[in-house]
Amino acid sequence: MARTVFDLARITDRVVSDLEALFQSDEIWVPTTDIERFDVTVSASMPESVRDKGGCQLSWYLVHASEDPAWRNTPADNRPGAHMPQGNRSRPQGLDLSYLLTAFAKDNAIQEQQAMSIAMRYFHEQAILLPRLFYPFHLTVTMETQNLDEASRLWQALSAPLRMGVVYRVAVVFMEPTEEPAPVGPPPRLVRLVVGAAELESLEVAQLLGPAIRADFQVPVNSTRESVDLVTSSIAPEEFKPGDRILVAGLNLDAVGYQNVFLRLIDGVDTNITIWQANRTPSRLVLNVPTGATAPAPGWYLLSLGHDQPTPVRSNAVALRLVAP
Predict the structure, then answer these.
(1) pTM over 0.70, yes/no
(2) Listed residue (324, 317, 202) closest to 248, CA to CA
(3) Bond from prior residue into 310 cis (ω within 30 degrees of 0)
(4) Residue 136 Rama label (left phi>0; alpha psi -120 to 50; beta)
(5) Per-residue DSSP letter, 242
(6) Same structural domain for residues 207 and 157?
(7) Which mean pLDDT values do the consecutive 10-residue runs of the chain (325 residues) have?
(8) Based on the structure, what is the number of domains in the chain?
(9) Which domain holds residue 289?
(10) How far apart are alpha carbons 294 and 303 in whole angstroms?
(11) Do both 164 and 207 map to the same domain?
(12) Does residue 138 sit in the same domain as residue 33?
């Protein structure tokens, strides 16, 4: 499926920015074009609204949007078990956009026609808007055929005097649908909860809040929301064994001077275990417990951050329990 957009103004802004870059480029003002350089202001405004701004005004105005007939029907869904048609909220809407390109320069019809000539040649040579940064869509730009009578009715609708103008069709624009509500999932079996102290966030030192906590809940069969008082639970520090990953929550864990990780037995000596570190963010530290000969002995340990040189510095310590595999 093609890329979708949520805001039609992104399409308009893309073309306006392309036209602005076009008139600022030196390549279109080469001597062989026999056009002397002049300033052109490009906007997405209604033609009548720019007549008092002075200079040469080039307007790329969105006048109409219609549903693309080729994308009106719901496409078939060939996934196993998917035999029902899709609702409008589950698929993008394909639109054709009609833009009016026109120029206005008071008392200077030559500049109007020159600006239109440059823009029309550009759209003829660049008939496809290719995806690029911040504009991930792929669209075609096609000049619509209008006779004088049709053009007159358009300008009457705009309540503006008839001037030279060209209508372009930009298609197909896929409007992003709203997200469907997520289906109801099974009851949770594992919950991770991180609790922090808000007043510590302004400190410039690392603060460990604690390792993962295990919570066990016994839910009676056929229980409902009204049965919450019947649910029994127990909360205890998580136990880790060789080969496990330890997740420790904290604040300012990227603070300067707290790059090393230390582990010590209760009333023991600090051991630098920075090599265990798998990942670290300002609020989370992940450690891999080694296996084999380098696996730590079972017991209660204190975990902290800091450094030893030139003067030892340590964060607060949190307790964790290592068990035999």
Answers:
(1) no
(2) 317
(3) yes
(4) alpha
(5) T
(6) no
(7) 75 90 83 79 90 91 88 58 58 87 91 92 86 74 83 76 85 78 67 53 67 73 74 72 87 87 83 90 88 88 88 87 86
(8) 2
(9) 201-212+237-322
(10) 17
(11) no
(12) yes
